[in-house]
Amino acid sequence: MQTVGYFTSERTDRFKQLQAKLRARWQNIDIFDRDNYDILVVPSFSIDQHVGQKVSGFLHYEERLLFSLIRLGNPHTRVIYVTALPLCPLIIDYYLQLLPGIPFSHARDRLLLISTYDASLKPLTQKILERPRLVERIRRALRPDRAYMVCFNSTWLEQELSIRLGIPLLASSPDLLYWGSKSGSREIFAECNIPHPEGSFGVNNTEELVQEAAKLWERQPDLQRMVIKLNEGFSGEGNALLNLTPIQNYAPGEASHTERMEALSKQLEHLRFQAEGETWTSFASRIPELGVIVEAFIEGEEKRSPSVQGYISPAGEVEILSTHDQILGGPDGQIYLGCYFPADAGYRLELQELGLKIGKALAAKGAMERYSVDFIAVGKPNSKEWDIQAIEINLRKGGTTHPFMTLKLLTNGSYDYSTGLFLSQQNQPKYYIATDNLQKPQYRGLLPNDLMDIIAQERLHFDSSTRTGSVFHLMGALSEFGKLGLTSIGDSLEQAQEIYYRVEEVLDRETKLMLEVDYLPEVSTLPITW
């Protein structure tokens, strides 16, 4: 691998100069509406690969940014989309046929697809940087004065690629990565006086973790559970639950501080991990590198996990894009599976205000482009009110980014801040349910061609006349993993659910013969209960 100078001050200055061009060129909130630009899409999940490899079909998550191809609806825009492995041509055709009013061939001529032909678990951006000839090919294909780069998350890898290509990166500087970590999120919440669970900031060894857990228990003697989180994680895969019930004899008032620490230290070996196959030995080995926090687990009979998504323009203006109610699964409801749009009316306007406050704090630190904030909402007894507590900031695109952008680009509608609803051009409110995790064993073996046949035969596609239906993604993960993503859009939440259920019903029927093959373990589907 070629050595790159990620941390030199000269390269950091060069990166800032390139980003300054964004601020000079574009002052409006959504620069994507501008035409005649080259957009380089690098959908690299530049995260801890130990965490990423625990996500089924992780490599195919690069397909989540394929909604960017809808930008080709601007007749002079060009898109370069880079992936680790070549994309199935039929998948590309599927997205291009969604473009309203643009001939298919016209859009296809303005799209350049590039692959590294590397199926390893290294971040895609690292794979690109390891191939100087590929970097040069991309550079030659771009108009440097009319080009910018977008990515899933911004790290030193993306900064280096931006510098080598000589084009700005539309994302926060890697210098700001800390504010998207678990520990950095807690600092922002404290700075903004936003309610959040009692807990610690980041520590880098087990001894300090035990010390912080003991302090937390002493501040909250009635605590039943704690959440231990790696400072960097993806979809909740870096979380673990610490149950205090088995060691209640060491609770505050029952034992000394030293005895409590000893009990907590032993209990760490019995953590309940959210990632399948995780162990305390492997989890603990990541703590010195990534850091870890501990915080109180929020209990409640009626509990939800809403989120808010915002956008910080290159000029520093902040806009709220959407609110969602997240669908969580896993052993203790910590793993992101999907979402509803919009969030419940009982708290979505409050989410907007909290999200705006956090966005302004991030903008003041120099952050740019998308961010989202996850919350816990607990219903208050005998009341319609909710207790809202902030959990973490994602200073990147996330699981709620691609479904909302798909809705926006396909309907050409707008978000109504006064109601928290999304309105089509005909002033019709739009709703959706989206997931990356429609996964069943009998779906394995379905090729993208098979899926397209089923979509056409059963009329499951998105209907541009009614602006309702389903849009599919993660189709590359279907054959090997039996996993599919989709966004089901309706004129009501009930209709969106019906559309989603219809897709699942048809896929189950079409693959029912696979159930007779008794070599695949059962995999649960998306738990849609509301």
> In what range is the share of β-strand residues?
15-25%
**The CATH top-level class label of the largest domain:** Alpha Beta
Alpha plus pi helix count: 16
**Which fold name is given in CATH as the topology of the largest domain?**
D-amino Acid Aminotransferase, Chain A, domain 1
How many structural domains in the coordinates? 3
Rounded radius of gyration (Å): 23 Å
Helix content: 25-40%
Q: Give the CA-based shape.
A: globular
What is the assigned CATH homologous superfamily of the largest domain?
ATP-grasp fold, B domain
The chain-level structural class is: alpha+beta
Folded structure, characterized:
This protein is an alpha+beta fold and 530 residues long. The protein has 3 domains: 9-171, no CATH class; 198-296, no CATH class; 303-516, ATP-grasp fold, B domain (D-amino Acid Aminotransferase, Chain A, domain 1, 2-Layer Sandwich), CATH 3.30.470.20. 32% of the residues lie in helices and 22% in strands. The chain contains 16 helices and 18 strands. Strands 9, 10, 11, 12, 13, 14, 15, 16, 17 and 18 form a 10-stranded antiparallel β-sheet that branches. A 4-stranded parallel β-sheet has the order 3-2-1-4. Strands 7-6-5-8 form a 4-stranded antiparallel β-sheet, covered by helices on one side. Helix 1 (9-25) crosses helix 7 and helix 9 packs across helix 10 (257-267). Mean pLDDT is 88; it is low at 1-5 and 518-524.
